[in-house]
Amino acid sequence: MISTVLALETSSEVASVALLHEGIVRSRETTGVQTHSQTVLPMAQALLAEAGLSLRDCGAIAFGCGPGSFTGVRTACGISQGLAFGAGLPVTPVVSLLALAHACRKATGASDVLAMLDARMGEVYWAQYRYDNGWLEVSAPTLSRPHEVLPVGDPVATGNALVEHGAALPPGLRRAGVPHLVPHAVEVAELGLLALDQGRALPAAEAQPLYLRNKVALTTAERQARAGA
User: Fold this and answer.
1) Residue 119 sits in a domain of what CATH number?
2) Could you give the C-alpha distances from 118 to 63, 125, 179, in angstroms and in order?
3) Is residue 88 part of a domain?
4) What are the tens digits of pLDDT across the range 115-169?
């Protein structure tokens, strides 16, 4: 069984890289969306050097495939694909909202998690997951207005949408949650290794980001219409 995965996650304002090797996770991170493309490769190289490994010693490249920042998601996918091509490795895309739910479970023990990220433009990305000997998707990743989030049951809510859109979310989600978490490469590495062990890795050519929005900005008329609504 392969036990080494290099992981990248850049879907939010935090860019992170993690190396999971023989059960030990090393990670580095930086903040600032504008610098993600400049910082990811140096962090990856530093982690590999620290562990005394080369890229070819890895079993796969895992990456947070989104949803999230358009530029960030594209950065993680493109760099992962380039590294995988160069080293002859497969890739394991990990939904960033699932990585967020996984982090919430580790922090709280929750088995039912509603993961939510600020999508800008007055919208949120969200999905709901339930853990039962593995993660099950309750509600698929969705882009919607905050008040349109529809949790099933009483999940623990997590993600920066709790801070950015708290007053606009359904009342039940305004109480205790875990707002400080964002998708991180540590969880992407753990979920990526699981996908690799289960035979769900993909050829590098098939690496694709998960986009839920075709437009990345509103027109003036659209902004005025939303303000009026």
Assistant:
1) 3.30.420.40
2) 20, 6, 11
3) yes
4) 999 999 999 999 999 999 999 999 999 999 999 999 999 999 999 999 999 889 9
